[in-house]
Every structure is written in C-alpha cells, then in structure tokens.
C-alpha cells in the first residue's frame, strides 16, 4: 500500500515538474503568454486559432495556422513553446478531471 | 514537421546520434524522437521522465495494457502517428495482434478482460468529451479495478493526450509499417527515457 502511494506520487510529481517547467522556467515566449496558451484563454488572433485547435481539435491544425502566427511576429521557438503549453494544458485538465471524478466516486463509496 | 527548427535545429552531437539511429535501425528517426531532442530542457527531458514513469514505471497494469491504452486514447484523438506507433507496440508487448485489433475495431465486442475494457471505455470518454463523472468511475471500480489502477491509467491518458496533440500540431510524419515495428521494438527494449 505504501509502495503504491509512493509510486503514484512519482507519476504525478513528474507531471507537475513538466507543467512547472514549461510555465515558469526560462523561455522565449513570456510567462504570461505561456499561461494563456496553457489555459486556452485570453489569447488574441491569430494565436487563438492555432492554439485553440491544439487544445480541442489538433488534427485540424494546418500549415496556414502556423504561417498566420509566424506572420503575426511569433518566432518558431515561441510557437514551439506555446503549442507545447496548449497541449500539456489540455492534458492537465483531463488528468485533473479524471482524478477529481475518482476522488468523488471513492468518497461516495466510503460514505455509503 | 511544420516548424523548421524541429527538422534542422539540432547541434552536432544530436545530429550524430540521429545518423547512428538511422544507420542501425535502417529507418528514419521518428519525429516523436526528434521532438524530445529539441531544446530538451524546455520539454523533452521532463516529458520523457513522465512518459517513462507512466508507461514503464511500477503499476498493476502490464506494459501491454498500458500500450493498448495509449493506442486507444490516440484513436479517440484520431492521431495517426500515435495510433500506428502504439498499436504496433501493444501488439508486440502482448504477442497478440488480434486482441489489439479487436479492441480498436469495437471495444464492446472485443475479447478483453472486463476491468481493462471498462478502463478503456472511461479513458475514451474523458478524451473525447473532456470530462467524466463519479458515476463513470464507479462503473470502472465495480469491475474490480483498483484506485491505483485508475490513477495509473489516467497518467497514461495524460501522457498521450499531450503527445497526440503535439504529433498533429507539429505534423509528425506517419511511418511505414516496418518503421512502426522497429520503433515498437525500441520502445519495448528501452522505454521512453
């Protein structure tokens, strides 16, 4: 049991380390811009088009989405970072939603 | 890939490594591998650590089960590169191609254990709809899946929801069947680190 708990902590800790690095570590895009990409909120055009697709319908990303963001002045390194933030952000929401539903299911079991 | 830095932005040491991989595997270096070598301090190092822990770290799920989850989540995201890569890896891990094919064709009629089936169903719903409720989780737990197993499955789900998105946003080139088989062999031998 103790081993199982420690094991799980390691998985989640590794995920939090990734999140923390891409949001708060050194980068070419500003921390504010990376936070907006991660949460898929408060982005201006044309970044909102590209990063919204990364979060919710990634197969629809096209060369034109990247070209539009480049034309708006974002470098390839900034886009590398912001696309990663958008992808990890959506995954984090799914991870958290699953863990919250599990906690609720287990709490219900214990109450009942 | 869509960003030129991901095709060409590597130092001499990394280029030499890629050339060595091409020489020994006789296949191009998969874009998934290239991505984690680009500015690895930003993403690759920690992404590899997390993915390896989720896919190869201690868990009540077998490696085959977790590779099948990766393939199933990738199918829910319609991510061609990742479906190919993890279908091949699950097949090799299980040594059972028909089982993997049946799950991906129709989970409900597939000859697969109820706990794994219920877990895959929940991961598919979470991936497609962006949410699951306590009732969905109670259904999974009722098949005998432990809390630890659910948590481990959610870690796999998080890893592949990230990788699927990056594969399609950056435009990973889909490999030949032989290329996917070679990649699967590598992933089973060496893992994700």
Sum this structure up briefly.
The complex is a heterodimer of chains A (112) and B (193). Chain A has 5 helices and no strands. With 112 residues, chain A is an all-alpha fold.
Largest interface comes to:
A-B, 51 and 55 residues
Into which percent range does the helicity of residues of chain B fall? over 70%
N- to C-terminal distance of chain B: 22 Å
The major β-sheet of chain A equals: none
Strand content of chain B: under 5%
Tertiary shape of chain A: elongated
Number of DSSP E strands of chain B: 0
Terminal CA distance of chain A reads: 23 Å
What is the CATH class of chain B?
Mainly Alpha
| Mean pLDDT figure of chain A | 92
Oligomer: heterodimer
Order of helices and strands of chain B: HHHHHHHHHHH
- Please give the share of residues in helix of chain A: over 70%
Identify low-pLDDT runs of chain A.
Answer: none
Structural class of chain B: mainly alpha
Uncertain parts of chain B: none
CATH architecture of chain B: Up-down Bundle
Into which percentage range does the β-strand content of chain A fall? under 5%
For the biggest sheet of chain B, the summary is: none
